[in-house]
Structures are given as C-alpha cells and as structure tokens.
Specification:
By secondary structure, this protein is of the alpha/beta class. The chain folds into 3 domains: 126 residues, no CATH class; 211 residues, von Willebrand factor, type A domain (Rossmann fold, 3-Layer(aba) Sandwich); 55 residues, no CATH class. 40% of the residues lie in helices and 17% in strands. The chain contains 15 helices and 14 strands. A 6-stranded mixed sheet has the order 8-7-6-9-13-14, with helices on both faces. A 3-stranded antiparallel sheet has the order 3-5-4. Helix 3 packs across helix 5. The longest helix has 18 residues. The protein starts with 18 loop residues before the first helix and ends in a 7-residue tail after the last helix. The C terminus is likely disordered.
Length: 440
C-alpha cells in the first residue's frame, strides 16, 4: 500500500531548484587545485582533495546566496530583520545534497556510509553537522561528464560554429555511410553493394537481356570518406609554479582536460585519451580522479612526463598519436640512474636519492644543459615513434619559450602562447581543425 508523507510547508519548493545550475556554480569548488592550501600540503606527490560533505554544504550555501536563488526565494529564507534563517537554510542544503546523491552526481566513500546517510535523513530529516565533517565524497562519472559538457559548451560557444566530427584524411574507404563514387569490390572491403553500378557493369559486358549473369568483376561497392583514429595523452604540469604569482593556472588546465575528454568520448568514439601529471616525477591519473588532483611538488620533470606519455601511446593501436602538453615552466628536474656518459660527477653529486632508488637531479635556475639535452633526446624518440607534440604555454618566460622552440623544431609540432582565459579555445580548436596555422 502506498503512503503519502506530509510535511510543514516552508515556503520553498526543494524540487524547483535546478541541479544543473547548482553544479555549474560549484565547478570551481569541484576542480580546485590547492590554490588556497598551505604550501606544506603541496610537497606530497599526486596530492588530492579531502573534501567532505560539510565542505560541500558550505560551497552550496555560498552558491545559493550569491545568485542561484531568486530574490523571492532569498526573501523566503530571511526573517523580518533580513537575516538568514539558519534552520531553513540547513534543511535546504541537506535536501540538495540528498538530490545530488540520489541522481548520481556525487557519491560517498562506501555503500555503508551512503546507507547511514539515508537512514539519518529519514529519521531526522537532516544531516548531523559534526558527523558530516568526517564523511568524504567524490564526483561520479556522471558528475564529471556534466562538468565536461558544460566546459565544452562554453569553450565551443566562444569559437562560433565548428564542425565537430571525426578526423578527416585524404583517403577513401568502404563502409555503410556512402558519400563518394563507387569502386570495384576488392577482398576485404565492406560489402556495401552499389546495386545500380553492379547491374550497369554486367549490362555493359553482356548487353541488355535476361537472364543477366553477374560475375565477380561486376561487383561495385559504395565508398565513404576514411576517418583515422587518434590516441591522445594530455600532459598536465602540476608543479608548484602553477599556483604561484597570484594566479591559479591548474584549475583552468583541468577544466580544459575534462572538456577535451568529453569531446572525444561523444564525437570521436574511435579515439582514446589518457592523462599524465608531471612535477618532480610523473604518473598517469585516471579520468575519474582528475577532478580531485591538486598541485604537487615544486619542480618540473618534463622528461619523465614525455617518457611515460610515449609508453602509454605505444600501447595504442591508432593511426595518429599525439601529446598535448600544458605547462608554465621550463624543465628543471630529471631522474638519474648513476654517473655514466655525459652525466657528470658534479651533477650526480647534487642529485637527491628517492624512495625508488633513483636519483632526482634538480636545477630551477635557467636552462640546465644536462636536463635540456636529455629532455630533447626524449622528444626526438617521440618523433621517431610517430608522436606529435603540441605545447600550450601559460607564460611567456624566456627560458620556457626557448625550450619550446627547440621541442617544436624537433617534433615538428606546434607551440601556443596562451593564458588561462583562452587556453581552452586553443586546445579544442587545434584538436578539431588538425591543420597547420600560426597563432598570434
């Protein structure tokens, strides 16, 4: 038997608030890069956010009071003196978090915790603030996909009309989608038979009459444009400089990466995309963890990032392979196995041994000849492996510009001097157009 539960009317329709608009307002909160954190937290490799439901409540509260609620709804939250009624606001926050979980945008640590939340909401109608401080949450794939869609829509809107499709080439192939002239059938072609052309070929050979004998050479198939697939690795610089100088450069970089992932999954289903973070070291990060990543240690190990990206691309069976590197700093670190060849004893002396047993050589002053030499060697290996490297620079630092010019010359890729404002425009436009051009 179905029961109807009645509650006291509070003046606000909880279901009337748009979760899409709320998530859009919370983008900066979900993708925060550690810009506001203490520098001590950035020493750990691959740090991530430790966001709790209490943090989410505060972020939602700020979004509601800063434009998400209409004037009428805001007045309903206020008392006679214009002060916010905390008990009504707290209930609204709990209901919104409940909706975000129910509709699959966020999830908590485990099912046991989720069950406890549901029971607490059913009994008390609200979350215990002290208890919520210890409950961590994360974005689901649905939540990340929504953020990617919003970012892609905003970025593509600024580009005007763009033809988003698969990567065009000059070659033709046989397939079900036919938009080119027919050709004689060859073994291995898709048997998308052009009936008219096949019959016409037989008639030309035997003349008009019945019965009409068809032979193998009469078979004609439709042709369509051949589209190549592309494997992409996005290299994100998460060194300390990405949040220095009063500017957060890492959050926009993450937003662009998520938008590019959404574009590839929805418009280029044959493509693949992976993400690599590089700082003192380098590691691959799953798409589901991308939103949680924050800025890491201080130095920029471009060599290790390129090396890992090349290994990831080597496992991809795609016609096109590319690295999209987003950085704001020159190479300032590299791993050393020991003193050999052109690795001087002096450089090895200044190297610091890591937990893996390797030695990390660091030099943030200018362009270190040893680091640059080894990094450019890796660039050359990428080129020999058929990997294109496009670099997007978030600064016009002299040393970085000089290094990127050498990378572009060796890899025959492209370099873009951009900022956090137009980074997404350049990345997406370059990916879609795939043709040589000069960007001023």
């Amino acid at each position: 038997m179905k029961f109807t539960k009645y509650a006291k009317w509070s003046g606000i329709d909880w279901s009337d608030l748009s979760l899409d608009e709320l998530l859009d307002k919370l983008t900066e909160f979900f993708l925060q890069s550690g810009f506001q954190n203490s520098p001590r937290r950035r020493r750990n490799p691959n740090p991530s956010q430790d966001q709790t439901l209490n943090d989410l409540q505060q972020a939602i509260s700020q979004a509601l009071l800063q434009g998400l609620l209409s004037d009428l709804e805001l007045k309903q939250l206020q008392d006679e003196n214009g002060n916010i009624r905390e008990e009504i606001l707290a209930e609204l926050l709990d209901r919104l978090i409940e909706r975000l979980m129910k509709e699959g945008y966020i999830t908590v640590e485990d099912e046991e915790t989720a069950q406890a939340i549901r029971q607490q909401m059913a009994k008390q109608g609200k979350l215990d603030p002290e208890w919520a401080k210890g409950v961590k949450f994360k974005l689901t794939d649905k939540g990340l996909d929504f953020l990617g869609f919003k970012a892609l829509r905003d970025l593509m809107g600024s580009l005007g009309r763009s033809s988003i499709g698969r990567h065009d080439t000059i070659h033709l192939s046989t397939s079900v989608e036919a938009n080119q002239a027919s050709k004689a059938y060859e073994f291995g072609d898709t048997l998308n038979l052009d009936v008219n052309a096949t019959l016409l070929s037989a008639i030309k050979r035997e003349g008009l009459g019945t019965p009409l004998n068809l032979e193998y050479r009469d078979l004609m198939v439709h042709q369509s444009e051949y589209y190549s697939s592309c494997a992409t690795v996005v290299m994100l610089d998460c060194s300390h400089s990405m949040i220095l100088y009063g500017e957060d450069r890492f959050t926009p970089a993450k937003r662009v990466a998520i938008a590019l992932a959404h574009l590839i999954r929805t418009q280029y289903p044959g493509d693949s995309i992976k993400f690599v973070l590089f700082h003192d070291a380098a590691e691959e990060v799953a798409f589901s963890k991308l939103a949680q990543v924050q800025v890491g240690p201080y130095h920029t190990n471009t060599l290790e990032g390129l090396r890992l990206s090349r290994r990831l691309l080597a496992a991809q069976q795609k016609e096109m392979k590319q690295i999209i590197m987003i950085t704001d700093g020159k190479p300032s670190a590299m791993f050393m196995e020991g003193v050999s060849g052109n690795r001087s004893k002096e450089a090895f002396y200044y190297a610091e041994q890591t937990n893996s047993g390797r030695y990390l050589y660091k030099n943030p002053m200018g362009l270190d000849p040893l680091i640059i030499q080894e990094t450019l060697k890796e660039v050359a290996i990428c080129r020999k492996s058929g990997i294109l490297i496009n670099t997007f620079m978030l600064t016009d630092d002299y040393y970085l510009v000089d290094f990127v010019k050498k990378v572009t010359e060796i890899a025959r890729g492209k370099a873009y001097f951009t900022s956090v404002v137009n980074l997404g425009h350049y990345v997406l436009y370059d990916f879609i157009k795939k043709k040589t051009r000069k960007v001023h």
